[in-house]
Amino acid sequence: MDRLADVADCVSGTANKSARVAVIGGGYAGMAATVELARSGIPVTVFEAGRVLGGRARRVETDDMRLDNGLHILLGAYRETLRLIDLVKAPGEPAGFLRLPLELTIHPAFRLRTVHLPAPLHLLSALLCARGIGLSDRIAAARFMAWAQRNAFRLASDTNVADLLTSRCQPEAVSRFLWNPLCVSALNTPPAQASGQVFLNVLRDSLNGSRADSDLLLPTLDFSALFPERAARYLQAHGGSVRMGFTVDAVLRKDGGFELTDDGTRFTDVIIAVSPHRAGALLAHHAELASIVRMIDQFVYQPIYSVYLQYARGSRLPFRMGGLEARYSQWLFDRGQLCGQDGLIGVVISASGAHQGLAHDVLARAVHAELAENFPGLGEPRWHQVIAEKRATFSCTPGLSRPDNATPVAGLYLAGDYTASDYPATIESAVRSGVRAAKLALQND
Ligand SMILES: Cc1cc2nc3c(=O)[nH]c(=O)nc-3n(C[C@H](O)[C@H](O)[C@H](O)COP(=O)(O)OP(=O)(O)OC[C@H]3O[C@@H](n4cnc5c(N)ncnc54)[C@H](O)[C@@H]3O)c2cc1C
Q: What are phi and psi for residue 85, nearest 5 degrees?
């Protein structure tokens, strides 16, 4: 963070324009808004409460090890995220992820992989050639996608994913190995509660687009380095500043603008890019925003747990990333193969479940037992760490109302993965939301 500390408080002066924008929150949404504004020559100050940029996708440092608070993946369909990473990275610098054709392994029972055929044949062949389920199951899965395409991935009225799959006669094995794991990892919501419409939106953009859209992008950098810290350097080069460790308590209106600090700095526009459960406190000062506060108050949250287990050097999984059919462990990441952290296995457990009732040590031991049973030879872990994000995302339920980026207060905007969009809470929805909020601020200029 040293370089970023240098960035702090270096407000500059590109500005012979009247606009001066404050962005509250240095997560993916806030930093996307920042880049979009800085690109247009608007002076921006980012206020970030934490000591590292990235919010819910950030680096966590323990001893000599750099971990992520959560083992994220990106998809080829994340166009805005990829565009902005490309804009802020140094020329010639690798983007920071491995791009792999979609492969969905649920060890030891199931495997689906796309092949080098043009869309949509890449998907059709993947479904029809999937291993571990019978021919009638594979045909049923292909029929589901064909039905969704015919209906332009639109439901007449939203329903939960479990009911949607039942109504489309999806066999148990197809739901268990394919649709349910996709639903839980994309929407972070159990199928019986998750929005069928949002699930179809995700299938539309990832599986029904071009072959590249379905690619998995597995990070080789931590998630602070991948975009937010590059964005901060881009901001600095464009005359803006980042104030780390600064919690904004209130956004006060003054003389047609806004004040956030005691030093009298006036902003023409403010983008509130904090997580939804933190937004209410900042919005509560403005009576016109009461309905937005009520909307956000309705949100229910889902957790994501990340369990890291450090095995002996040279210990490897048979894949870089894959699923496991087990009680707790859902997705496994071999950090040795991905980013050179030899012997380090990261395990993701999305959405609510029995794991929440376990002490972290007990959970880590249970996850280790599942790995040891499936991958003999791993040995005993030398250390483990469990990171529990209890409010990882909002619960993406049918018909959920989400607030717009624009608010009734002129010059005040919301950005974040929870604002209105047809996507669940993801990096891409956060980035798109930030870009939209920045465009609104630019129009207001
Ligand atoms: C464990 C985990 C795994 C995930 N896996 C994936 C995945 O694989 N793929 C995917 O696409 N998405 C994934 N997600 C979702 C994704 O991380 C989020 O959707 C996204 O990061 C949200 O970004 P955001 O900018 O909207 O909010 P946040 O990341 O929450 O950023 C808000 C920022 O505001 C700051 N802040 C809050 N209050 C204040 C204040 N008063 N003053 C100043 N600053 C403040 C916070 O410190 C934070 O940095 C995962 C999330 C988690 C938690």
A: -60, -45
Q: In terms of C-beta density within 10 A (0-12 exposed, 13-18 middle, 19 or more buried), how is residue 22 classed?
A: buried
Statement: residue 1 has pLDDT above 70:
no
Residue 398 alpha carbon to ligand 1 centre in Å: 22
Q: Which CATH number applies to 301-393?
A: 3.90.660.10
| pTM for the full predicted model | 0.95
* Residues 306-324: tens digit of each pLDDT: 999 999 999 999 999 999 9
Ligand 1 pocket test: which of 24, 202, 274, 285 has the largest number of ligand atoms within 8 Å of its C-beta?
Answer: 274
Cα–chain-centroid distance for residue 276?
A: 14
Q: Taking a C-beta distance cutoff of 8 angstroms, is the pair 148, 204 a contact?
A: yes
Task: Give 182 Cα–ligand 1 centroid separation in angstroms.
Answer: 20
Q: Could you tell me the CA-to-CA distances from 106 to 81, 112, 248, 319 in Å, in that order? A: 27, 9, 44, 11
Kind plus residue range of the DSSP H or E element containing 313: none
Shortest-distance Cα residue to atom 32 of ligand 1: 274
Q: What is the Cα–Cα distance from 17 to 213, expressed in whole angstroms?
A: 39
CATH for the 2-94+221-299+402-444 domain, from 3.50.50.60, 1.20.1250.20, 3.40.440.10, 3.40.228.10 = 3.50.50.60
Q: Check pocket membership of 421 for ligand 1, CB cut-off 6 A.
A: no
